[in-house]
């Protein structure tokens, strides 16, 4: 399998990562190198089976329904790039105008 | 050519917990923006989710109330997409191994009579935050108080055939969830939200047409209106020789129109995968069984029992069983010794009027039962009882009998007193007396009414008639 | 000696290391160290780590210093809460000495992928200290601190421990809380420990473990068994997985391992060959699972709630996302996020992600057989195929860098405890031997390591 230029652009869009045109050829080449490398898993027979593996406990613990938040040493305003009247702010554009 | 409409609904209900789904923040509605937030629901680096036991219990309870199979093992999955109201860039939901599957909701369809609509699945997930678009020019404001609130998503099969049927399904679903006590189901506060999938096909066709999703439905009435608008749009398209393309639409309630959402074309590759922060949710069969046993009687069973155990007419049973608070009140009145039919009469009248206005019950059930008893024993008339009822709300009003005494509304059956009122009425209406004696027997009702009026409702109507008959002979 | 005095000395060593251009720290100040010391000196009871200065990898959050994960996208970010591991260290009397440099978001094996410059190997500045916890490893190796926290996703503590000649211990997955460890590959991530000696590492690890109500993947297990070194290794069976001793193994590494095997036998242990056939697939499996999880874990760095924001010329929300993330993440992080997105995307999930999960299970099954009933008590392997390589040697080809973890990543996939300890040098560079134990058997693994540590010179040239 190999990953083409359009596919890289599609994936970059899904991941919301801007990619400059000039860096694209090298990126495509490197990603192909990685995809080719991981493709060696194809050597594992398709009928191979194993007990599903799960790291950590077999079942999730559940917490009691108590209001007990981990306190913040600093409020959201102290870390936000843009904040006003208690709100985080972002540009208003595109798809969001529909909602 | 006639068209068949195929509708499936996705309903999100907020589960009634004190704290959020995966963190200890409060779920209170209406607090200042970004005040109920912590590392987990802000999506801060390094924070991890831990599921809320009560959310799982309520979701399982909802699933059981809808007749679903609750699975012993279900998996939390990450649904990946970018949106400013989604702090982690993914929503923790469930995907290919949901909490529960395959239930049904039975209800009265306006067109098809009693039908059962399949429930495909019920899964748990966390809510997103809230976006405010109109407060800062050119900016969208993000409030994450709601982010991480526990939701159950209930997906129906595409079994609904008309917009009115969809509305009836929602009404019943809401009733069941309220009975089960899992959610407030308030569309105003956003604790119940509906997305609708709709397609059309020619009658007799078995394949499904291309479906469109309608969002932004803020009341059951608007679900019906939006689906009607979308059905009309699709039929018009196809009849004009065009094709329906899959699209998400928003309903504008003011214009009564649906409008396609722009720029969502590639939002559908959500790249679900099991959330590695959360081991499987494992529920023992014994635990599930305990939840099932703890379920209250649900609307259908309740309605049946109102008919069989209390002898109520089907209509009364449906009205009273419509809301759990009402039926609980009714049963408390009946349990306090009131005649069930009289109790139903009161509940469907004064009681529901008051409850719908204030959201609470002014008169304790035992007091209403006592009042109904006084009517049954002829101590007060029904007319008088309606005047006594509002007085019973006040604290320290004393016994119901004492209130009736204080208001001077205890019925009079003493023949001497009745004869005095009768004499006064006959003296005041000589013409009617002449006509009665001339053969107009139906005037008896008029005389009884006049006596009741003169006695200010205190005269016992059953005692009045013999006295009148005697005097008019 | 008071914590205040220890803090002054630690500060002096940190200053010297800075002057030497090691570039191993990202944030530290004498004022914060003194503050730590004052807190420790005021503690009513001496904790097990009383006054021990400890370096913290910069992907473990602390309230006082920035936590950048070696990335521009978190430049200046200060966490408003502490990691559970940090709270536990402090409760035990330790002092947080500094935040250590690392490969950006722990993605790398050389600490050349830090946005704040590469870390130099303390013995040879032209070489890399390994990674991604290279800053922590270098600080311990340079004698700046006796112990440090790193994190492992695919060998990021054992590999630099091996390169730098220090002890690096990765606990069983679920032993130590990840709350406050900035996630990379959540099903693999483990806060792990560096120590100047086995004893230092064991002491630090012993206070870190235990269930945490804030991390649903911690396991409720009894604390670690006593790691005190033994008088000999009689009764112990040590397995040598043949796949971990390939023909092209670096001769110095092979010689060092041969010497360890001889000592293990002299100490009374039985040694036998075992097989872990699917370990050959560990690195490709890892490079599907870890990036897939990372792609989701790093989605939160979107410029909305924290961290620097950059908005492209379109000025809309997408331009905010794409520019903040496109410019904020370095080349290796971008590659992994893109690969991770790719392997989860529609049409590829089964071929990559699902397949990788199967192979992961096969790999874990191999270890279970080798270490289970009728198997061996511990496995012994080289930690790395070569000693520390030169800076720049593997940056052009990402896959060549990935192969530096060929002997360590299978253990993360299987969730097992393992350690690397220095067992000699070749051409002046340290060589590490790796011990792998059954799940939650850290205590005995450390006891054996401590026994070997006394029997083998870590700095002797091996031929």
Q: What's the β-strand tally of chain C?
A: 11
Instruction: Output the structural class of chain A.
Output: mainly alpha
Contiguous helical run count of chain C = 14
Strand content of chain A: 5-15%
Judged by helices, strands and strand pairing, the structural class of chain C is alpha/beta
Question: So what's the overall shape of chain A?
Answer: flat
The largest beta-sheet of chain C arranges its strands as: 1-3-2-4-6-5-10-11-9-7-8
Termini of chain C, distance in Å?
42 Å
How far is the N terminus from the C terminus of chain A?
Answer: 40 Å
Largest sheet of chain A: 2 strands, antiparallel
**What is the count of DSSP helices of chain A, taking H or I runs of 4+ residues?**
3
Produce a short descriptive summary.
Chain A has 99 residues and is mainly alpha-helical. Helices cover 29% and strands 7% of the residues of chain A.
Structure characterization notes:
The complex is a heterotrimer of chains A (99), B (473) and C (463). Chain A has 3 helices and 2 strands. With 99 residues, chain A is mainly alpha-helical. The longest helix of chain A is centred in the first third of the chain and has 15 residues, at 24-38. Chain B has helices at residues 53-65, 163-180, 220-239, 285-294, 299-310, 314-321, 324-335, 340-358, 365-376, 382-388, 400-406, 415-428, 430-437, 443-454, 461-472, and strands at 3-14, 69-70, 73-74, 76-80, 90-94, 100-109, 113-126, 130-136, 139-143, 150-156, 192-202, 212-217, 248-252, 257-260, 273-274, 281-282. In chain B, strand 6 (100-109) and strand 7 (113-126) form a beta hairpin. With 463 residues, chain C is α/β, with parallel strands linked by helices. In chain C, strands 1-3-2-4-6-5-10-11-9-7-8 form an 11-stranded mixed β-sheet, with helices on both faces. In chain C, a hairpin with a 2-residue loop joins strand 10 (418-426) and strand 11 (429-436). The longest helix of chain C is centred in the C-terminal third of the chain and has 22 residues, at 350-371. Strand 2 of chain A pairs antiparallel with strand 9 of chain B.
């Amino acid at each position: 399998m190999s990953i083409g230029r359009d596919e890289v652009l599609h994936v970059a869009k899904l991941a919301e990562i801007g990619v400059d045109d000039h860096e694209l050829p090298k990126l495509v080449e490197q990603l192909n190198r990685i995809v080719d490398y991981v493709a060696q898993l194809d050597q594992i027979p398709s009928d191979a089976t194993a007990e599903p593996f799960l790291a950590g406990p077999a079942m999730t613990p559940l917490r009691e329904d108590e209001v007990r938040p981990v306190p913040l040493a600093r409020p959201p305003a102290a870390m936000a790039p843009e904040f006003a009247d208690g709100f985080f702010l972002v540009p208003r554009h595109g798809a969001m105008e529909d909602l | 050519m006639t068209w068949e409409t195929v509708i499936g609904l996705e309903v999100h209900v907020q589960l009634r917990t004190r704290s959020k789904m995966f963190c200890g923040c409060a779920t209170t509605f209406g607090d200042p923006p970004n005040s109920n937030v912590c590392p987990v629901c802000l999506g801060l680096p390094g924070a991890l989710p831990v599921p809320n036991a009560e959310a799982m219990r309520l979701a399982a309870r909802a699933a059981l109330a809808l007749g679903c199979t609750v699975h012993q093992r279900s998996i939390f999955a990450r649904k990946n997409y970018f949106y400013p109201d989604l702090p982690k860039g993914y929503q923790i939901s469930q995907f290919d191994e949901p909490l529960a599957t395959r239930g049904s909701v039975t209800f009265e369809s306006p067109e098809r009579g009693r039908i059962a609509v399949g429930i495909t699945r019920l899964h748990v997930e966390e809510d997103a935050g809230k976006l405010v678009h109109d407060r800062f020019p050119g900016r969208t404001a993000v409030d994450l108080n709601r982010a991480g609130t526990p939701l159950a998503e209930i997906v129906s099969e595409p079994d609904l055939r008309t917009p009115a049927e969809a509305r009836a399904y929602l009404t019943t679903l809401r009733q069941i969830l309220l009975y089960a006590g899992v959610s407030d189901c308030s569309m105003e506060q956003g604790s119940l939200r509906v997305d609708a999938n709709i397609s059309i096909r020619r009658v007799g066709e078995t394949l499904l047409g291309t479906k469109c999703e309608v969002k932004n439905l803020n009341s059951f009435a608007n679900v019906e209106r939006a689906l009607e608008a979308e059905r009309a749009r699709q039929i018009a398209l196809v009849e004009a020789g065009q094709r329906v393309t899959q699209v998400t639409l928003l309903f504008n309630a003011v214009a009564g129109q649906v409008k396609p959402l722009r720029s969502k074309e590639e939002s559908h590759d959500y790249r679900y995968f099991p959330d590695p922060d959360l081991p499987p949710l494992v529920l023992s069969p014994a635990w599930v069984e305990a939840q099932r046993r703890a379920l209250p009687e649900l609307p259908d069973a309740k309605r049946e029992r109102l008919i069989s155990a209390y002898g109520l007419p089907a209509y009364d049973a449906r009205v009273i069983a419509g809301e759990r608070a009402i039926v609980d009140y009714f049963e408390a009145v009946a349990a306090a010794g009131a005649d069930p039919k009289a109790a139903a009469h009161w509940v469907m009248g004064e009681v529901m009027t008051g409850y719908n206005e204030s959201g609470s019950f002014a008169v304790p059930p035992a007091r209403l039962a006592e009042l109904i008893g006084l009517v049954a024993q002829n101590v007060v008339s029904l007319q008088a009882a309606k005047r006594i009822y509002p007085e019973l709300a006040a604290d320290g009003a004393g016994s119901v009998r004492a209130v009736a005494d204080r208001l001077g509304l205890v019925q009079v059956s003493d023949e001497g007193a009745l004869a005095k009122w009768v004499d006064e009425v006959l003296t005041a209406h000589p013409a009617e007396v002449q006509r009665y004696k001339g053969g107009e027997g139906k005037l008896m009702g008029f005389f009884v009414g006049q006596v009741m009026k003169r006695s200010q409702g205190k005269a016992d109507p059953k005692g009045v008639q013999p006295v009148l008959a005697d005097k008019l002979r | 000696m008071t914590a205040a005095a220890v803090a002054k000395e630690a500060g002096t060593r940190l200053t010297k290391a800075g002057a030497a251009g090691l570039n191993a720290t990202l944030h530290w100040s004498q004022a914060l160290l003194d503050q730590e010391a004052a807190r420790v000196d005021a503690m009513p009871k001496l904790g097990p780590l009383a006054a021990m200065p400890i370096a913290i990898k910069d992907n473990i959050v602390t309230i006082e210093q920035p936590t950048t994960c070696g990335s521009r996208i978190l430049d200046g970010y200060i966490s408003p809460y502490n990691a559970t591991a940090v709270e536990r260290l402090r409760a035990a009397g330790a002092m947080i000495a500094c935040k250590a440099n690392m490969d950006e978001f722990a993605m790398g094996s050389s600490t050349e992928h830090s946005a704040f410059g590469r870390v130099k190997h303390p013995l040879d500045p032209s070489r890399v200290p390994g990674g991604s916890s290279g800053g922590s490893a270098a600080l311990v190796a340079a004698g700046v601190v006796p112990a440090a926290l790193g994190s492992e996703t695919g060998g990021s503590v054992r590999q630099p421990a091996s390169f730098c000649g220090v002890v690096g211990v990765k606990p069983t997955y679920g032993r130590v809380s990840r709350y406050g460890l900035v996630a990379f590959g959540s099903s693999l991530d483990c806060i792990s420990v560096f120590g100047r000696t086995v004893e230092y590492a064991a002491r630090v690890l012993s206070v870190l473990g235990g269930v945490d109500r804030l991390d649903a993947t911690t396991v409720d297990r009894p604390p670690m068994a006593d790691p005190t070194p033994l008088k000999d290794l009689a009764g112990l069976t040590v397995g040598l997985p043949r796949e971990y001793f390939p023909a092209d193994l670096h001769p110095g590494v092979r010689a060092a391992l041969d010497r360890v095997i001889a000592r293990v036998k002299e100490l009374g242990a039985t040694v036998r060959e075992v097989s872990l056939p699917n370990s050959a697939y560990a690195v490709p499996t890892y490079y599907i699972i870890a990036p897939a999880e990372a792609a989701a874990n790093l989605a939160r760095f979107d410029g909305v709630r924290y961290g620097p924001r950059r908005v492209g010329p379109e000025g809309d929300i997408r331009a905010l996302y794409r520019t903040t993330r496109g410019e904020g993440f370095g080349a290796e992080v971008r590659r992994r996020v893109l690969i991770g997105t790719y392997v989860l995307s529609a049409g590829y999930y089964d071929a990559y992600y699902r397949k990788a999960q199967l192979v992961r299970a096969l790999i874990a099954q191999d270890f279970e057989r080798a270490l289970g009933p009728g198997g061996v008590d511990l496995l012994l392997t080289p930690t790395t195929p070569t000693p520390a390589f030169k800076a720049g040697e593997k940056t052009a080809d990402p896959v060549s860098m990935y192969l530096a973890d060929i002997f360590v990543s299978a253990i993360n996939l299987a969730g097992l405890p393992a350690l690397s300890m220095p067992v000699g040098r070749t051409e002046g560079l340290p060589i590490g031997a790796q011990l792998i134990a059954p799940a939650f058997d850290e205590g005995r693994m450390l006891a054996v390591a401590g026994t070997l540590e006394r029997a083998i010179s870590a700095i002797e040239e091996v031929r």
